[in-house]
Amino acid sequence: MEMTRAAALVEREAGRLAAALRPEALAVVVPGCPGWTVADLARHTGGVHRWARAALATAPDGAPGEELPGPQDDDAVPAWFAEGADELVVALASTSPAAPCWTFAAAEAPATAAFWARRQVHETALHRWDAESALSAAGLSAAPDPAAWVEDDVAADGVAEVADVMLPRQVRLGRTPALPGALALESASGCSVIGRGAEPVAELTGSAPTLLLLLWGRTTLDAELASGRLALAGSREAADHLLSGALTP
After folding, report:
1. Torsion-angle region of 182 (φ positive above 0: left; ψ -120 to 50: alpha; else: beta)
2. Helices 77-93/3-19 angle, 10° precision
3. Which is it for strands 202-206 and 230-234: parallel, antiparallel or unpaired?
4. Partner of 213 for a Cys bridge, out of 111, 121, 133, 218, CB 3.0 to 4.6 A?
5. What PANTHER family does UniProt report for this protein, alphabetically (predicted)?
6. What's the pLDDT tens digit per position in 197-245?
7. Of 121, 119, 123, 103, nearest to 111 (Cα)?
8. 96 and 4 in contact (C-beta within 8 Å)?
């Protein structure tokens, strides 16, 4: 993803997440992140933003340290979150995508700043969805549209990131076994395949934003087939099995 666009997307998504950090919302539970409140969600995302900024300045064979914890006081979280987001946006906008840096991609993948541009767009957008969904569930705002909560091409890149980066990492770390078959995920902006196999055993078609929510566990296949936002061709049993593992952290 081009760095200028990535920086602009992170700035926009972080701004929308920041707008959700209203005093009455900080203690609201987040359905997409069990055990977290909206304040906890912002602490996590703000810590990841700072960690990513440190990674951009770390050599490929170095280590950026641990994710920084946020302030314990909920009331201090909004300003702390905004500060970290602003610093990350500046770092992304001022860094060449080819600049070498530490990443958690596979050893054979390029260790460059482009990795963090892509990762932080999807990290920030997904957690903005989480915050807005939490406020909606609490009756504090309207619900985001599962089929159009982010641009289709951005979501399609997020689906590709799960297939190319996140799922392989989950397998490398022993968090989930290698998938025994292949599942095709097709939208108007492209097609990605998770798992392995010469031919997919099933294919899901629909909006890329909905597919991305499914892969990150923010919705279910039952719900999306029933809504008509996704359509399935091939084996439902195989699709359920392939989606049942820990595809993402």
Report:
1. beta
2. 170
3. antiparallel
4. 218
5. CONSERVED PROTEIN (PTHR40758:SF1)
6. 889 999 999 999 999 999 999 999 999 999 999 999 999 999 999 999 9
7. 103
8. no
Residue recorded with tokens 């490398």:
172
> Which residue shows structure tokens 């990150």?
216
Residue-number span of the structural domain to which 225 is assigned: 153-243
Q: How many residues does the chain have?
A: 249
- Quote the pLDDT of residue 11: 98
Kindly state the tokens that stand for 147.
């089929």
In a domain, 174, yes or no: yes
Within this chain, do residues 157 and 233 fall inside the same structural domain, yes or no? yes
Residue 199 Rama label (left phi>0; alpha psi -120 to 50; beta)? beta
- Name the DSSP letter for residue 66: P
pLDDT digits (tens, 9 = 90+) for 124-172: 999 999 999 999 999 999 999 999 999 999 999 999 999 999 999 999 9
Say if residues 140 and 133 touch (Cβ distance below 8 Å): no
CB 199 within 8 A of CB 182: yes
Domain termination site, one of 123, 142, 161 = 142
DSSP string covering 169-215, please? HHHHTTSSPPPSSEEEEEETTEEEEEE--SS-SEEEEE-HHHHHHHH
Residue 190 is predicted with a pLDDT of 94
Is-above-0.90 flag for pTM? Answer: yes
Residues 90 and 17 in one domain: yes
CA atoms within 13 A on the CB side of 114: 10
Q: What is the per-residue pLDDT across 36-69, written as a single tens digit (0 to 9) for each?
A: 999 999 999 999 999 999 999 999 999 998 888 8
Residue indicated by tokens 């599942």 = 183
Q: How many domains does the chain have?
A: 2
